[in-house]
Every structure is written in C-alpha cells, then in structure tokens.
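A quick aside before the break. I want you to see a complete sequence-to-structure record at least once, exactly as it would be stored in a machine-readable document. Don't worry about memorizing anything.
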Amino acid sequence: MQLVKKIKGWFATEKSASEAPVEKTKPELNNYDDEAWRVHLMSEIASPYVADRNFLTLFHTVPEVFFPIDFIARRIAGAHFEIRSYKDDSIIYCNGRSQKADRLNAILQAPNSIQRWRELVYMHHVFKLVTGNAFMRAAMADTFKDMPKWKYCDNFWSIPSNWVKVVPAGTKIPLFGIAKLEELVGGYELARSNDTLIRIPTFQVWHDRDGMPQYLNCTGADFLKSESRLKAAHRAISNLIAVYEARNVIYVKRGALGFIVAKKDGGELGTQAMKPKEKEELLEELNGKYGFGDNKMPIGVTDVPIEFIRLNQSISELQPFEETLLDAITIAGLYGIPDVLVPRKDHSTFSNQAVAEKSAYCGTIIPMAKQFCEDLTLFLGLDKEGYYIDCNFNDVDCLQVGLKESEEVKKLVNERCRNQFNDGLITYNDWRAQIHETALEGDIYNKVKFDMTPEELAKIDTIIKSNNSKPSTGEESNERNIEKNPVSDQNG
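That is the input. The structure line, written in tokens, reads:
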C-alpha cells in the first residue's frame, strides 16, 4: 500500500510541477525528511510532463529509455561524413594548398575547442530524440551576420536544449504570414533556473525539431519547440519506475516482511494472542540467538506455538521482467527500433537480427542522418558555394548483406554509361559521377565524345582500358597528382 501511495503521489505532483517553471532543489525542502525528498525526486523522474530536464533524467537513469536513443545517436555519429560538390557529386579533397578545403576539413574534425565531430553529432541527436529539440550554435561576431558560417566561424556548439528558451520577436508577430525568421524569433536565451546566462542572436542558432512546433504559447518557454516522443510513452515509463521501485523494495527488504502470530489453542475461545511478556521473550530470543553472524543460528527453535504470515510478494510472483520487456519494446517502437533488437534476459540472438538491424538503418538511422546533413548544409551556407554535406555507412556489416546485388547494379550502370558516352550523350565526368567516382580536372573530361580531338579520344580510351584491366579503387594514380586526404571526419 505504501508503494501505491507513492505512485499516486508522483501523479499528484504533476500539475503543480507543470505550473512551476523553476526546478526545486533539496535545500528548499528543509522541512521534509529524507523519505519525502526521495519521493519528490522520484516524482521528477516519473512524471515527464513538466520540463525537458526530466526527459534527460530518464535518459540517464532508465536503461529502457537510454537504449533506443543511444542506439540511433551513436550510429549516426559513427557515419562517415564528407563534403561533396553539387555539380557532379564528387568529394572535395583537401590537398593542403586550398584554404577553402582546409576550413571545410576543420569543421568535420574539430567543430569547437573541446569536442570532436562525432561527439557533437552524438550530443545533437541525443537532445533531439530525448527532448524533441536540438540547438546548434555558430559562435561568431555580428559583423559576419550575412556571411556563410563555414567561412567565418570556428566554434560550433550543441546547446543543451533544456536550457534554451525561444524568445518571440515581439508581442505581435506575423505568425502564419509573410515573415522572415528574425521577425518571428527575437533570439534565444540560454538559461538555467532564473539566472539568464546569455542571449544568442537568431542568426547564430539552428533549431532542429523532432516533430511539430508549438505555436500557441508565444509567451512561454516552449514557443516553437517540439514535444518529446517520450511523452507518448508516459504510461510505459511510469510502469517501469513502479517495477524498479517494487523490485528494490523486495531486494532491500524495506518494511515488514510479515507477522509472527500465536497459534495457541484457547478452546472455545479460539486462538489466543501472545502475552506481552511472551512477545518480549520471543523477540529477545530471535535477536540474540538466531540470524546470520557469529554465534548465531540460521533457524530458530521455540516452545511457543507460532505461525509466520508473509506480507510481501516475491519477484517471481510479480513477474517484473515480462513487464519491463513489454515497456522497453513500446519505447523502442516510438523510435523505429524493431523489437528483436531490444536487450532481454534470454533469446539475445536471433536469426533475423541482421535483417532487423538493417531495417533500423534503412528506416530510421539513414533518413535521420541524411536530413541532418541537408539541414546543416543550409545552416553553414555551403549550398551557396555549390557544396553539401553527405554521409555514408559503407562500413556497417548488416548493410553489406546486399553487397553482391549492389555490385551487379553498379556494373549495369557502368555499362549503360559506357553506351551513353559512346553515343555522345554524356561526358566522361558525367559517367564517373553516376558510378560515384571523383570528377577529374580538365576540359577534356567535360566534353562529349564528338567534341573531342583524336588525341583527346586516344587519351580517354587509354584511361577506360586501364580501368578495365584492374579492379576499380575509386581513383587512378595517373588521373590526379594531389594528396588523397578527403575532407571528412575519418580522422576525428
């Protein structure tokens, strides 16, 4: 009953917590004892309606919440990111002599002074999946407000979304009308509790949402923010908290395990209760002779007819593992993770696990990573220079299952391009772009066959025959005499 009262108390605090914008700390609860503080802390965890910081607490404390979010964020951060050209999809390589390539390379290696690129990507997606919002800041001077950020910014940060408040541009904003972002959002406040740390201009921040923005509450802290997916799993999370609490009660044996009652026959009067002196002698005997320790016995012997009535339930009777697995599958499903990938106590390996992991990549991870690349390209202003950020997962084992089929497709595409080149429909660089090879420098490679001189045709024919005589490595040594250090995060 005590546990039920605590659970009811968690939900009773939900309304009052949602009305209070500032999180209570332990010093403010001096009038409460340690038990009251523990119940208050559990209410912060078990009622995820109040603020983003509670979702982050769930992520750090409940394994079933941590798993799907970490599963997605870690795999996106582990992708191979690279800079490509819009013109022919070729990779932009850093040869040590181009300042432009060096700056691009720096972003994908160390976006700020304390983080590597993969750390930033992981942090960004954790905030996005946990709270529904992620904020990336390009810390730069106002002088470069209208300049491409990739050129004039050396510090990119993923800001904790639970500290960020979107500030409206005024009391009357042209929402749903003809308006620029600066006319809707006046800036972003990076704050904790009531202490404002910094006011960030609108042009420095990219707000990445995981759902629909909230429009109505223009004066609140959630303006233009998206709600977390975890909100839909409120009941499942509450069940998890209750199960963990119940299991903990059993393990540490808090409260009475049962009662020792007398079985003395009183004749017509029925069973007689023990007298106070008998109770005292029995307790003294139990505490003095029996138990675990030196000079104590694990069993007790008494001349008083007694019986033990158990109050609590065993773990096997509660069946908590079945409950937690069902809730874990529910939460993982919100993030597009197949149920066979959810960790469990038995049947940890499945014959179709590789298929399930491939499904998670193709249905959730890769689309999210591609969307991240597209949005970041626009935020950095790379599109205005004819570049874009791309990512691939070529080193993921489960995606190599269809490698043979993909090689067959590439062979067919290569043969089709050969015919189109010989018919004068495409250039040699067009051919290379369609098979995802790097473009070559020189006018000869951007001409169709019928515009080439005999000498140029002979050179192209030599390259084609050279490619056919050896396995393709993606680039030939006689085609480019520069260092092969791609603008990517492979060293980061």
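Two observations worth writing down. The first strand starts at residue 80 and ends at 85. The CA atoms of residues 144 and 397 lie 43 Å apart. We'll return to this after the break.
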